[in-house]
Specification:
By secondary structure, the chain is α/β, with parallel strands linked by helices. The protein is 43% helix and 12% strand.
């Protein structure tokens, strides 16, 4: 069992046990203590706080305190109603944002049409209001013991998804490192009262109800550990003889990027096919032998509305691919190059995101990435340092290695692990994608000693990924 689920249920269990030992007020105190511990654990694991959930909890805590002061448990009982109503109002207000609050929360895992998101929002609001009504019915008509059990263990039906985002959680040996979710993602699904910690938010397990599976529901994809590859929004079209083990490397990379970047878009017609995501043509073939041209990777066709890719290319030289596989580097290279297909580095100049091009200090000026860089280095400047060496496709198309070391999207294969950081996700948000910061790997700027241990000791050295060509993309229909 995932240890994070224990944390999710702790406040409710504490409430029930505390009530059994000393009544509703003791149960409320136990639940509050368990909630504080749960928040601390969340902070220790993810370095983020669910501020909306904390706010709703504070609201209910005020009611509980008033009830204790007047020795009236009615205030405790209505706290769940008040908190649920507050959450329903927040969801309703969230409908006026584009994308909506629910889409911002679940968009990287549930890929729906615009109508689908509206239905999801309205259904969630309806169920939240139903929970408030149910609480009123239970506390007014049932015994205190029945209400305690209801309030301690009742959870929101609908989209029953775990609070924690994909990645390495305690007891889980996934390929990603610890996640760092922003507060607005986890808070959006938080339920009022003592059940808020069990809120359905980011979906490691996504057991969608019959509403989503109804044949008329505009549903595209519910992402979890074992995805239906036919519904993955990054579609891979393999050309030539690509062995199963090698295909799996590309498929894992597609799943990783699908989990952090929203790649579902309005369907378009491409070469007689309907494409709702990004199609990547993959090939591994003899080109010029080892240590020559590694291949090419990048977007080939862009959407006319957003300028984001609808199709791209990933081509590798057979001999170089075998050498990377022997060195256990091929997987990271594929993950890295798939980012270029999605637009990292390859669409920056087109979108006016580079300042100081051609100088010794070019910078990425997108506000989201700049915000994440400021969190990493408050004195590092107003924009993000990018590569100032290398040829076309490398210079000003990667993060600067002397600053970011082993981050996945530098132009070098440095260190033993190559984390996909919030900084990189911020750059995708600046391109126009919706992103899931919660699925980013833990990352901090390396010290000079750490850079030296990675073998990064000079500004100009042989670039591992400089031998990749970049296709010149065209806009669909033009």
């Amino acid at each position: 069992m995932d240890k994070r689920l224990i944390v999710e249920f702790a406040p409710g269990v504490a409430f029930v046990l505390g009530d059994a030992l000393g009544g509703i007020f003791l149960g409320s105190a136990c639940a509050a203590c368990a909630t504080v511990v749960a928040i601390a654990v969340r902070w220790r694991w993810d370095k983020s706080l669910p501020w909306l959930a904390i706010s709703i909890f504070a609201l209910t805590a005020v009611l509980v305190t008033v009830g204790f002061f007047f020795n009236d448990t009615t205030f405790v009982k209505i706290s769940t109603t008040v908190g649920s109503l507050a959450f329903a109002v927040i969801l309703g207000v969230g409908l006026f944002f584009k994308p909506s609050l629910v889409e911002r929360t679940l968009g990287y895992k549930l890929q729906l049409t615009a109508q689908g998101w509206l239905i999801m929002n309205l259904a969630w609001i309806a169920v939240t209001l139903l929970r408030a009504a149910a609480n009123e019915v239970v506390w007014r008509n049932a015994s205190d013991q029945v209400w305690v059990l209801y309030n301690g263990f009742a959870t929101l039906p609908g989209s029953d998804c775990s609070l924690w985002s994909p990645g390495r959680s305690p007891g889980n040996t996934g390929t990603a490192q610890r996640t760092t979710a922003p507060s607005h993602l986890h808070a959006a699904g938080a339920m009022a009262g003592f059940g808020w910690w069990r809120a359905p938010v980011s979906a490691v397990r996504c057991r969608t109800t019959a509403l989503l599976w109804h044949r008329d529901f505009p549903f595209r994809h519910c992402g979890h550990g074992k995805q239906d590859r036919s519904r993955t929004m990054i579609g891979l079209r393999f050309e030539g003889d690509v062995p199963t083990t090698r295909r799996a490397v590309f498929e894992r990379a597609a799943r990783r990027w699908d989990g952090v970047v929203q790649t579902a878009f309005p369907p378009v017609q491409l070469e007689g096919q309907t494409v709702a995501g990004v199609r990547i043509d993959v090939s591994v073939r003899p080109l010029d032998g080892a240590n020559g041209v590694l291949g090419q990777a990048g977007p080939s066709i862009l959407r006319p509305d957003t300028g984001l890719p609808v199709a791209g290319i990933m081509e590798f030289d057979q001999a170089d691919a075998q050498a990377l596989e022997s060195a256990n580097r091929f997987e990271d290279v594929v993950l890295h190059e798939m980012a270029h297909v999605l637009g990292f580095g390859t669409l920056w100049e087109r979108n006016g995101l580079i300042a100081g091009a051609g100088t010794m200090d070019p910078r990425f000026v997108g506000p989201s990435a700049a915000r994440e860089f400021a969190a990493l280095d408050p004195s590092g400047g107003a924009a993000v340092p990018v590569a100032n060496t290398g040829g076309p496709g490398t210079r000003e198309g990667h993060w600067r290695e002397l600053v970011f070391g082993n981050e996945l999207m530098t132009g070098f294969l440095s260190g033993d692990v190559r984390p996909l950081s919030r900084l990189t996700l911020g750059s995708f948000e600046d391109l126009g994608y919706s992103v899931n910061y919660g699925a980013a790997d833990a990352f901090a700027l390396p010290s000079f000693r750490e850079l030296a241990l990675m073998g990064i000791t000079e500004a100009v050295r042989i670039c591992d990924l400089c031998r990749m060509g970049r296709p010149d993309p065209v806009v669909l229909g033009q």
